[in-house]
Amino acid sequence: MGLGSIWVVLVVIFCGLGVGQWILKRVNWWLYEAKLGAKKDSLPPGDLGWPFIGNMWSFLTAFKSSDPDSFIRSFVNRYGHTGIYKAFMFGNPSVLVTTPEGCRRLLTDDNAFKPGWPLATLKLIGEKSFIDIPYEEHKRLRRLTSASVNGHEALSTYIPYIEQNVIAELEKWTTMGQIEFLTKMRKLTFRIIIYIFLSKTSERVMEALEKEYTTLNYGIRAMAINLPGFAYYEALKARKKLVAIFQSIVDGRRNLKKDDVTNTKKKDMMDSLLDVEDENGRKLTDEEVIDIMLMYLNAGHESSGHITTWATIFLQDHPEYFQKAKEEQEQIIKRRPLTQKRLSLKEVREMKYLSKVIDETLRMVTFSLTVFREAKTDFCMNGYTIPKGWKVLAWFRTIHLDPEVYPNPKEFNPSRWDDYTPKAGTFLPFGAGSRLCPGNNLAKLEISIFLHYFLLDYRQNPECSWRFLPHTRPIDNCLARIKKVSSESV
Prior knowledge:
This protein is of the alpha+beta class. This is Ent-kaurenoic acid oxidase.
C-alpha cells in the first residue's frame, strides 16, 4: 500500500471516529430534548453528556479530587453565571440549581415540585421511606414522629442518655492510643439513635446494623452499577441484610402485641409506627415501617457523627476559637446551681457561641451537597423552562461556598455569624420547606453535648486530609489520640 493510500485510510478512520463521537454526544439530546418541541429552545444552558453516563463521569472525577467545586465551575466557565444548568445526572435528564432564590423555591413549592430521588437511591433507602412518600402521607407521619424526635420534652429526656455515653466514650478513648476518631464518633451517635428509635438492643444487633449502614452509605452516591466489586452492588446487599434485621425486630414487636404481653419499657419510635392508624383504620405495612426506620436511623447518626468530627477538627485547628468556645462552657458550669450536676436543655440553648461553631461547620462541610426534586409541571425559573418530569437538584454546596454570600467562604470563622441572620435560601444544611430534616434539633443537641465535654476536658491531635464522597469526610477517618487535659489551657 502506497503512502497516499495510508493517508486516505487514516483520514477515513479519523473522520469515522469524529462522526461516531458526534453521534454519541447527540444521543441524549435525541432521547430527551428533541421531543420537547419548542420548549427545548428555552432549556437552561448545559449539555446532557454521553449516553447513560451523562455528566456523572465529570461529577465523580471532580468529587474524587481535591477540588470538587470544579464540577459546577466547569458549567459556569462554559455557560456563564446563570445559576441554573441542564445536565444528565444519576440516570436522568436534570437541572442543577445553584442560587439561593432558586433552591428556596425548589424546596418550598410543593405544588410545582415533588421528591425526585433517583430510582437507584430509592432501592437503597426504600421507596416507602420519608424521602419519596406523597406530601399528605409525609405530613401525617412527620406529625406523628416530630414530638418524639424534636419535641422539648423528648430532647430533655434524651440528654442524660447522651451525656452518659459521651462521658464514658471519651474516657475510654483516652486509653486506646491512636483511634479512628470518625469511626468512634459514628458508633457513638449510632448507639444514641438506636436508643431513641429502638430502645436498648443487644450489642450484637447494634454492631451488625452499624456495619451494614456504613456499606450502604458508600453506595448511595456511587454510580448505580449492580456488579460485584462496585459500591452500589455492595450497598444493595447491605440493604437486604438491614431489612432482614428490621423484619425480625418488627416480627418480635408484633408477636408481643398479638400475645398481649405487657411491656414496661418506654414507647419508642418503632412502637409508634406499629400503632399508628389513618382515618380509615389502616396501619402501616411491614415494608413501610422498615423503610421509614431504615431512613431515620441512617440520617440520625451519619450527619451528627460527621459534623461533630469536623467541628472538633476545626476547633483544634483554630486555638482562638477553641478557647472562646471553652470559656463559654466554663461559664455555663459556673452559673449552675450547686444541686445540678449535669446539663439541662436550657443550658444547651444558652451555648450561643457553640451554636455558631456548629452552624459554621455545617456550612463548611455541607454534609448533603444536594437534594433531588422532580418538576410536576413545566416550570419557569430564571427565564428558563424546567420540563415536566425532569429531575431538579438543589446544589447546596455552591450556595454555602459562595463568596458573595460568605466572604472567604473556605475559611472557618464562627464569628461570621455574629449578629448575622442568613437570608432565605442561603443556609440549607437541613433543607427547607415541608421536608426540612425532622431530626435537626436532635442532631444539634448531640453535637453540642459532645463538644461541651470535649472542650472542657479533652484534646486530640488530628491531621486530616479531605475526601468528598459519599460525604465530606477525612480520608483516614481522622486518626488521632485523645488526651484528658482538664488542668491545662489551650
